[in-house]
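Changelog excerpt

This revision adds worked examples to the README so contributors can see how folded entries look when concatenated. The first example is reproduced verbatim below.
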Amino acid sequence: MPISYVAKRFGMFLLVVWAAATINFFIPRLGGQNPARAAMLRQAAAGGAVQTGMEEMVAEYNKKFGLDKPLWEQYLTYIGDAAHFDFNYSIANYPSTVLDMIGQGLPWTLGLLTTTILISWFIGGLLGAFMAWPRSPKFLQFLMPPLLSLNAIPFFLLGLLLVYVFAFRFKWFPLSGGYTAGSFPGWNLDFARNVLNHAVLPALSIILVSIGGWALGMRAMMVTTHGEDYVTYADAKGLRGRTIFLRYLIRPSLLPQTTALALALGQLISGALLVEVIFSYPGIGTVLFNAIRGSDYYLIQGIVFILIVSIGLATFVLDLIYPLLDPRITYQRN
């Protein structure tokens, strides 16, 4: 692969990250709300009385977080700090830093969404491939309508239905949370079983919705690939059906599926925000939701910036490995 192409793609990656980070800086400020004042008002409401000297406290917090500076100076500070992955303190959860807040929720989101995305991608892709293969069992054709029906349901809505049926009515699973209240997190079998029990319903809501989309995409690619001349030639040569299926149909069809998988993994941080919220799951989606509610500029900026970098990095890596996935793709000039 030419070094010039890698350098060009890396430059595009940096440009996209900068542009998206700039938008990420300005959007939370469009509402015009002062996050320090909002935090003080919430504390006052929780205490049942208006605190004296609130304006002085707001001014001190503005100075502490740099919100009293001109917007252009805040922007330059933000770009410099973001380049070092330093996102300041969380305004709503001071003195916790943004990285501390992200570090608390990120393992939960990575564990839940990485597992569910990979499972749904594998099962959906496999089902879609067999549905398009003429020699597959006929009963597989009847799976597509229910899968597509589930795919049309939002994650959170299916999650609410699962909660009502399996948690509220049958009481097979917990209603919410990442683990039982009062439990002590630790690396032991009992706590792992506890976490797994709480993760079943959120995981099912994502997997059941996603399988249909992956299956439909894979089936469409398989049908398209099946009409190619090289597949007809392979069949005419008398190659075994399994060889044609695996080498001549599956492999070319995996390219767009792999692209979609990489982008889905790149969006892990915000992938199922509402699913985490309705299940009170302690992941990064819940952290982002609470940050938006509390106008916590720095926490919002930190989470979204990491999301931007992860998606951009996933796209950049995909560009580099495309030739390995499909020999027909090359970046060498003739």
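The second example, added in the same revision:
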Amino acid sequence: MKILRTIAELLSRRKVIKRKITVGGKSIPLLVTPDAQLKYLKLGAGAFDQDLIDIAEEYLKENCNVWDVGANVGVFTFAASSVAHKGTVVSIEADIWLANILRKTAMFREYSNNAIYVLPVAISNENSIASFMVAARGRASNTLEAAGGRSQMGGVREKQYVPTITLDTLLNTFPPPDFVKIDVEGAEYMVLQGATSVINDIRPKFYVEVGSNVSDQILKIFQSAGYTAYDPHGNKLIDNCTHNTFFFPEEDEKILME
């Protein structure tokens, strides 16, 4: 099986196919590549991360501003834009090849009236230049070298240099976010270190893929800023994060309780 998977991964490189996802009962187009994840070759809804579509449907409104940090092929980007069609979506992807796929999807007529901005940079704790590792396996596992990466990478096929900016820097150009999704393969603590103003002043909701090695640090950042952590099932987290964790400002909770 491992040999077959390796062959499939090699054959899938640079391949792009058009698929559709269903958001709010509406079918919308999406360009994907099995070079990011082989599961995009599957038929039906099982090819996609349904949790990202569900989150867009449940937590976004038509006028929300959304930042998708680590957009990959854009499942959350375009699900979010479909729901928040009167707001803006900033789709951030450091891999220039994946960013070009995002741009091509954004050009479909279904999104012609939507404000989708594709930003080919890495988000980190400083505005600089950094080494970026392209995974030997799926490009969904790409990461900044300083973050170390994860075992799913299967090694590194190449290293690139990419510009890095902070989330706070984005406030100089784009509308402040109501919702931020972060999936950056081990660099999530670096991302949040550069988000002091976003967290403390703008106070959006967050959905973060959290590595076990930085769980304590990330929880501390949010708890210190008056956020509460929840797992995807709605259970409040006190001592640790789960692999995917929601962080809600405490003032939002008070509004819901009134």
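Reviewer comment on example two: The CA atoms of residues 105 and 137 lie 23 Å apart. The longest strand covers residues 156-165.
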